[in-house]
Please model this.
Amino acid sequence: MKWKLFKSKNKYQAINRNIQMENINQSGPLKKTLKDNIKQVKEALGESSDIVTREFLIGEDGKIKLGLFYIEGLANTTFIQDIILKTLMIDIRKANLNTTAYSKKKAFEILRDFVLSVGNMKEIADFENLLTSLLSGDAIVLIDGYEQGFAIDSKGWEERGVTEPTSQTVVRGPKDSFSETLRTNISLIRRRIKDPSLWIETKQIGRRTKTDVAIVYIKGVASDKIVKEVRRRLDKIDIDGILESSYIEELIQDETYSFFPTVYNTERPDSVAAGLLEGRVAILVDGTPFVLLVPTLFVQYFQSSEDYYQRSDIGSLLRILRYLSFFIALLTPSLYIAVTTFHQEMLPTPLLISIAAQREGTPFPAFVEALMMEITFEILREAGIRMPRAVGPAISIVGALVLGEAAVKAGIVSPVMVIVVSITAISSFVSPTYNMAIAVRILRFLFMTLAATFGLFGIALGLIAMVLHLCSLRSFGIPYMAPMAPFIWNDQKDVIVRSPIWNMFSRPRLINQKNIIRQQSPSMAKPKPPQKKQ
Amino acid sequence: MKGKVTLLITLTILVISLTGCWNRRELTDLSIATAMGIDKSDDGYLVTAQIINPSEIAAQVPTTRTAVTSYRTTGATVFEALRKLTKESPRKIYMSHMRTIVFGEDLAKEGIAKTLDFISRDHEFRTDFYILVARGVKATEVLNILTPLEKIPANKIYYSLRMSEKAWAATHAVQLDELISKLVSKGDNPVLTGILIKGDPEKGKKLSNVEQVKPSTLLEIDSLAAFKKDKLVGWLDMVESIGFNHITGNVKSTLVAIPCPNGGKLAAELIRTKPNVKGRVEDGKPKINIDHFVEANIAETECAVDLSKTENIYKIEKTLANEIKSKMEKAVKRAQKDFKSDIFGFGEAIHRTDPKAWKELKEDWNKKFENLEVNIKVTVKIRRLGTIFNSLQKEIKE
Model:
């Protein structure tokens, strides 16, 4: 134990030293002369070739020297040339910026107050801010002889447009999805909720990537406690880079050692808007279309946004179907193994005879056979996702032939096993979210092992353990299994069935405690009964 | 913390792997027995197990092998004989999917109670199989006959019995729980349906039996065998069997043929029967009143009766009632006179109405049953006449 402590302490020290070393040239206040500033910026960025530096003189007498930096590709060059450079070099050519009459400070103020006709502009006084702004696409303007400058927002890089969602598709409903740009994503939410209480807090996370992360919530609807908790957890993150929202998800989730996801992610703006209206907090990360939504409940993974766009009866039936296919995907192979190796008496006689006839001559025990087929299927599935698009048909032909025809004809697997694997596979695709489907995928193998060793008894044990585990999970302090455990009657309207919209007058209880009313009076429109003629 | 988790995972894996699936049975290791025959033999019992041959049953192309194989062996007890069967069978005999158990007539006459203990005690038996008695032959011979349509003879017996019970009132499908509860009851005795071989038993064993349009040997469900306690005491004939089923409420649907009011024949299909058996004790003498209510449809007329007239319908109802009543009386008479065994459960009826009196009556009940007064009243209501009104005979005459 002792050496372990010692070792971990050493590790920490090494990390701290590292931090100090890398920050040497990248902080501190700006220098007085432009020459020094340019030198330090170039030094800090290692003379990278995509940095553009431009020195020029302004004013009638050309006494004031300015320096402009930007990064090619990140900054919008047209904007810089048309607005900043043109304004500074041509439009104020005639202006009297007499340096003898006014100090350099005055020139700075004039530039700020009268000259630079741009909206989003910051004053910067130190290198840390300068570099951060520069690297996020701003144009930096420095004045020779003054230790402050401007960071002008000129972000403009190549980005992917708003396209149809690829991971959560609907038949009816909005077809836009988030893209990789944070600003676009926020605007997609704003466009849906035009409420001044939709608040957006942005912070940068990642010591090196400086990724913009936005916390979005509706003030007064989202619980302050949860917003505070989200803020606290995000502030605690100390990492060199955030490349996808999954980094944040793993760093802030309540339980890492669980197959079940406790942070919901979606690329659908309408799902996020619905979540915000329910009082959830959204976490948007720059550079990924996947937005996190907390707190997350287990039942959320069975709610597709389409449930709410179809009539409530259709939505309810589809949801029940989803629960059903969850269990089919989870348990079918294990039930098959348990029943055929331990509990043959449970099958109706004609079915048993038919299965027995198919199993006749197959060389492996049912468990091995099932395992083989499931693994083959998982391989095919993974190959289907990773392979280049062009070879897709080849994989599906080989897969169908290998799995279906050849294996059965060769007598290696029984036809009924192929049916079991197929129904399992298809059911696992029903889940509207990918990460719950993965949880089911992993658990399926555990259940198969349990079924092969203990039969139905093992499956029952496994289910009990699973339910206990699910009940022990929390997502930002909210019980994961709510509103089923703890049971909340009022929230049942959106669990197994999706009740009509007019009936969903309140928000989920546990997520939001103070502002639960969505509809003041039931807004169902019923035609008035016909009036009797007098 | 880390150490504890690792330990827990290791222990779980050990627990799962060390049990080693000890009672795992692959389907390919099992011989699924669909029928069992129990006969008397010199040293105890002769047990026959009909084992299915799954690949033959599911075969797409006809083969020259039979769909079932029967193994038989003798043993001091049924269980011993069954275990001995593994010497002949390549796999373990699996009893859960038993459809029928057939007792040989010899054994039934001596008593079947001893064998039932094993069948109801062993956990492998589901209790949804039917129990029959082989009439005139050994049970093992019954299980050797190949049957057309149903590849598995045990299934043929099972479905025949089930269908005939529904559509033809002379049979009664008995399962284990009913048999046992009737055996142990003081005021009731069991009946079992008989099964017999029609044709040459030797020919029935061969595949050629089912290769012809009209098989030379067939299995047929027969009428009921009456038991006194666990011993077979005699066979009811068809009419008595129907009477028995009327009294015990086992008639689901059947037909009754009666003479027409003005000559010729007429058949009625019974659609609903409801016997109300009431026991009564008057001056220490037990009495049984049966109030039988029957609903029927006219199914067939071979006479020129005018069905549009209600008085004719009334007449038919009356004749039907008398016909059914006579069948019931015949059954009661036979049981009282020949079998001296209360197979109708009249004792239980008295037990229900007068438990105090029953305490004394139950001693030697079967003796008292012999002289029991049984009053039968049958009410018939004709509900429908079918899709035509008057019989063709009548139309032709006019």
Observations:
- Chain A has three domains: 24-152, 182-296, 312-479.
- Residues 182-296 of chain A form one domain.
- The mean pLDDT of chain A is 85.
- The longest strand of chain A covers residues 51-58.
